[in-house]
Amino acid sequence: MNKIAVAGVQSSIGREILSFLEENGYKAKDIIALEPGSVLGNMVSYGEEEDLDVLNLNDFDFSKADIVLFATTETIAKQFAPKALAKGCKVIDCSQAYVGDSDVPLVMSGYNLELVHQASKGLIAVPSAAVAQILLPLQKVQKEYGIKRIIVSTYTSTSVYGKEAMDELFTQTRKIYMNDTLVDDQKVFNKQIAFNVIPQVGDFIGEETQNEWSMNAEVKRILGGDVKVHANCAVIPAFIGNGQFVNVECEHDADVDEVRKLMKQTSGVVVFDKNLDGGYVTLADIQGEDNIYVSRLRQDVSVESGFSFWCIADDLRAGVAKNAFAVLKELTTSTTH
């Protein structure tokens, strides 16, 4: 059995990756838990009955692992992924550190999983949660009608910035209810996040934020460079999950009823679309779920061949961890023991 290391086990995504491994029968003895700066005695849960010692990533000997999944920041991934590769490890990066590297395949289950076996550097990147959430429902639509343009507005939870951001939302909300001051309580966000919407996810790169730029780049890498993408990203006062309104313009005439049928046939996608009060899925409905949920499917009459939809997912689990696990499974079919 391959020895699988997970770097960043104390991050939200890292914990979800551990959950996928445990739920799919990977034994604790074959899993190595890593965290930057971890001290002796740190442990992380592995399923309901077992715990893993959390080793210090900073001085870990990567020759003890066969595959390393990075659920860390981009900075940490860029620092330690080359060290893992130098020791002969295969690397799956969930941090987006390498999505712009043309020599590193950007792999998404359902689209280009075969690229796993063409990773010349031994390094594979997986797309962001927001991109996976857009593209999975469009898997069969792309094959049937071709996609020429996507406009997406994302409403993402504070989990996009990790536990510290989620704690900031909780603390600000509590202080507002207690009529307490929020002075010095904006450490992650530039604006108050409680009871607010912030139209910025990531640092600015020119007129776009990092997430808007990244979504554009990732979609083009997976679908092909000819597709046009415009993304608008905002953070909302929620802890986990990501909501998106997506407008799609196709190369060929696409009828929304046929699109609905194709989405219903797509593995990992659940269509819950009723034109009545409450006949749609919200963030509160999907935490801990593996699937991506689609509602509000409509013909977009503003273009010749278009439609729009609302989709919701647990960004940590369905967005990143599930795809990273699919890449791991595919990778292990060609990795020697």
Could you tell me the radius of gyration in angstroms?
A: 20 Å
Give a quick account of the main beta sheet: strands, pairing sense, barrel closure: 7 strands, mixed
Annotation, overall tally of beta strands:
15
The side-by-side strand order for the widest beta sheet comes to 3-4-2-1-5-6-7
Shape estimate: globular
In round numbers, the mean pLDDT is 92
List the helices and strands and how they pair.
Layout: E1 4-7, H1 12-23, E2 31-35, E3 43-46, E4 50-56, E5 67-70, H2 74-86, E6 90-93, E7 123-125, H3 129-135, H4 139-145, E8 147-156, H5 163-177, E9 204-205, E10 208-209, H6 210-223, E11 228-235, E12 242-250, H7 256-264, E13 269-271, E14 292-299, E15 306-313, H8 315-332
Parallel strand pairs: 1-2, 1-5, 2-4, 5-6, 6-7, 8-11, 13-14
Antiparallel strand pairs: 3-4, 8-12, 9-10, 12-15, 14-15
Helix pairs in contact: 1-8, 3-8
In short:
This protein is of the alpha/beta class and 337 residues long. The protein has helices at 12-23, 74-86, 129-135, 139-145, 163-177, 210-223, 256-264, 315-332, and strands spanning 4-7, 31-35, 43-46, 50-56, 67-70, 90-93, 123-125, 147-156, 204-205, 208-209, 228-235, 242-250, 269-271, 292-299, 306-313.
Describe the structure.
Helix 2 links the parallel strand 5 (67-70) and strand 6. The chain is 28% helix and 24% strand. The protein contains 8 helices and 15 strands. Helix 1 packs across helix 8 (315-332). The protein has helices at 12-23, 74-86, 129-135, 139-145, 163-177, 210-223, 256-264, 315-332; strands spanning 4-7, 31-35, 43-46, 50-56, 67-70, 90-93, 123-125, 147-156, 204-205, 208-209, 228-235, 242-250, 269-271, 292-299, 306-313.
